[in-house]
Specification:
By secondary structure, this protein is an alpha+beta fold. It contains six helices and 24 strands. The strands form six sheets. Strands 15, 16, 17, 18, 21 and 22 form a six-stranded antiparallel β-sheet that branches. Strands 9, 10, 11, 13 and 24 form a five-stranded antiparallel β-sheet that branches. Helix 5 packs antiparallel against helix 6 (139-149). The two termini are 21 Å apart.
Length: 407
């Protein structure tokens, strides 16, 4: 797009000629470029329009559009846009370690010791000496620093449960990533597209969002929002493990541009801060009654255990607080809960894949079936170790990516 009398905007560059165009308009000289921008939001007041334009002068054309959309929807009395809602933050695990001649392998072990997350280091690089300086550094930032110092990139396996350092390709100078607390996004690829019917050109930025492998995250956006867009439509998909793909679609990027200087994103999701452990003595026998325990506002009740000749049935009733986000009827958040039956001496620990959950609002019924031959006829003295998430909350993650090369 061209503002009258100025060259086409360059993403991320200064729109230094905006001010003369506004001043000329104040003298009655209408500008066709500014008139086109006004047409995007006809209900926007003149003062709000000029404020948005001036505020965007260092952000480029895309940011002008975003700020106009944001200012108009807010001034019209619409619901508060997502980007201005209170942001719920989860603290990351941190690393503090300093040693001038530490090896890559030693730093990896220290990160595991302090955070609980293992880092797989290439054998040929484990003995490489680096200057390790970590002062209360969030986990992902510490791993990024270790990767940079060792000439590696971060790769995940096992649905994000395994963190590995892989030697960086000679064709890549550095990874494009951003960290927000215990969350990290990394650019995986950028795809250019041309529509030969309309002539439109656009780009898709494909990213991976990952988080510390202790957080139960259940749903997250499939397409993150540019931070200042007041969008009311969002599509969230179920998350498995600790890794989630994201896609950003960009249009109207001038063909001459070789990179996106800066891309600010907001990702929303639903998850919990931790898994809550509950340990019960199995209520077994004719006189057994249900037992209940409560942690962090979550109540878990264990019904009397049913034992037949071939199987054991264990049923939990869960009750969550009213304050947690309301999910759709098809959305679940307890299907990954874990149950182990432990023998009195602690040597036998049994799990099962035969289970079902019925969720109705904040109440859940979880039914587990065990057919293990190790289970005795008399279950007196056995324990149930059960894990379920703490109360759910709406999460907002914000990332800033810089210098994304375009194909």
């Amino acid at each position: 797009m061209r503002i009258h009398g100025t060259p086409a905007c360059k993403a991320g560059s200064s729109l230094c000629t905006i001010e003369p165009a506004l001043q000329a308009e104040s003298k009655g000289q209408r500008n066709p470029g500014l008139r086109s921008l006004r047409s995007l939001r006809p209900g926007l007041t003149e003062s709000a329009f000029q404020a948005a334009i001036r505020h965007s002068a260092t952000c480029g054309f895309l940011a002008v559009i975003c700020l106009l959309c944001f200012a108009s929807s807010s001034s019209a009395g619409d619901p508060l846009p997502l980007a201005t809602k209170p942001v719920v933050k989860i603290a990351p695990r941190t690393v503090t370690f300093s040693k001038a001649d530490a090896t890559v392998g030693q730093v990896g072990e220290e990160i595991k010791k302090q955070t609980g997350f293992a880092i797989e280091v290439p054998k040929e690089l484990a003995g490489k000496k680096i200057d390790a300086k970590f002062d209360k550094m969030p986990f992902w930032e510490a791993v990024e620093k270790l990767a940079e110092q060792s000439g590696c990139r971060i790769a995940l396996a096992g649905q994000g449960r395994e963190v590995r350092l892989v030697k960086m390709s000679d064709k890549v100078s550095s990874a494009l990533s951003a960290v927000d607390g215990p969350f990290r996004v990394a650019v995986r690829q950028v795809i250019g597209k041309r529509d030969f019917e309309t002539g439109d050109v656009g780009y898709e930025v494909h990213l991976d969002m990952m988080w510390e492998a202790r957080l139960p995250i259940y749903y997250a956006d499939t397409e993150p929002l540019v931070t200042t867009v007041a969008s009311r439509s969002k599509v969230q998909s179920a998350v498995t493990g600790y890794l989630h793909p994201l896609t950003v679609r960009l249009t109207d990027v001038p063909r001459a541009h070789q990179k996106i200087d800066k891309l600010d994103l907001t990702v929303t999701g639903i998850g919990a801060e931790k898994m809550l452990p509950f340990i019960f003595d199995l209520p077994f026998g004719e006189k057994a009654v249900a037992v209940s325990k409560e942690q962090d506002g979550v109540k878990v009740s264990l019904r009397p255990v049913k034992r037949t000749e071939k199987r054991v049935e264990v049923i939990f009733d869960l009750e969550y607080p009213d304050s947690q986000p309301k999910l759709e009827s098809f959305q679940q958040f307890t299907s990954e809960n874990r149950l182990r039956l432990v023998s009195p001496d602690g040597r036998t620990k049994l799990e099962t894949n035969d289970y079902s959950t019925e969720e109705s609002g904040r109440r859940v019924r979880a039914n587990y079936i065990f057919t293990n031959p190790e289970l005795p006829a008399n279950l007196t003295g056995w324990k149930a170790e059960y894990e379920t998430p703490s109360p759910l909350m709406e999460l907002t993650m914000r990332f800033s990516l810089k210098n994304i090369l375009l194909p």
